[in-house]
Amino acid sequence: MGDTPPVGGDVDGICMGCGVCCDGTMYRTVDVAADDRIELLEVAGLVFSTRDDVTSFRQPCSAFGHGCCSVYDGRPSVCRGYRCLLLRRHEAGEVSRDEARSLIARTVALRDRVRSGLTAYVGTDDLTSLDGLYRRMMAKFEAQPDPAAARREHSDLLLTVVALRVILAREFEPRDSKSHQPDRADEATPTP
């Protein structure tokens, strides 16, 4: 993608309104490069942390709203270069615009069900990634007298989480992504 959003182009057509790469559905954090305009991103509400010389911000991105990026011209370089698998397949002519939009609509609806279920179970309205909410749910299960019974009681939610993860991995996750890499130690501990 260039530095300005395409007008009426395919990226605009399938990316606008999706945002699963920005809203905490796919990723917990986004690393920024040394030459990214962090001051512009801070004005948009992003909070940065640095660990082991890597600066990042947590998802969901506060610059993403109403289906688009509010700092598009100054977005981090990783965002400028990011192309999900669905976008790549669409650009290669393997998936039509209508097929892509339909898949996005189904995925977003499933994401909304997962987020609603996780926030209801965890009891929080905090904006956090779906993975963060899932980790809180699992920690809450483990704190129960019978964790297995708690998991069985919420098996429908757990299956919905798995269904969403499968769709994201199969249809959206770029094959060259590093998102499957283990979390840094400070992010591995769930917050109950």
Major β-sheet profile: 3 strands, antiparallel
Instruction: State the low-pLDDT regions, or none.
Output: 1-10, 179-192
Strand order of the largest sheet: 1-3-2
Give the H and E element order: HEHEEEEHHHHHHH
SS elements, strand count: 5
What is the overall pLDDT average? 86
| Overall form | globular
Number of domains: 1
Multimeric status of the protein: single chain
Secondary structure: helix percent:
40-55%
How far is the N terminus from the C terminus? 38 Å
Reconstruct the topology from this structure.
Blueprint: H1 10-15, E1 29-32, H2 38-43, E2 48-51, E3 54-58, E4 64-65, E5 68-69, H3 77-81, H4 85-91, H5 97-122, H6 130-142, H7 147-153, H8 155-172, H9 185-188
Antiparallel strand pairs: 1-3, 2-3, 4-5
Helix pairs in contact: 5-6, 5-8, 6-7
Structural write-up:
It contains 9 helices and 5 strands. The protein has 192 residues and is mainly alpha-helical. The protein has one domain. The chain has a 3-stranded antiparallel sheet with strand order 1-3-2, with no helix packed on it. The chain has a two-stranded antiparallel sheet with strand order 4-5.
Could you list some keywords that capture this structure?
48% helix, 192 residues, disordered N terminus, mainly alpha, 5 strands
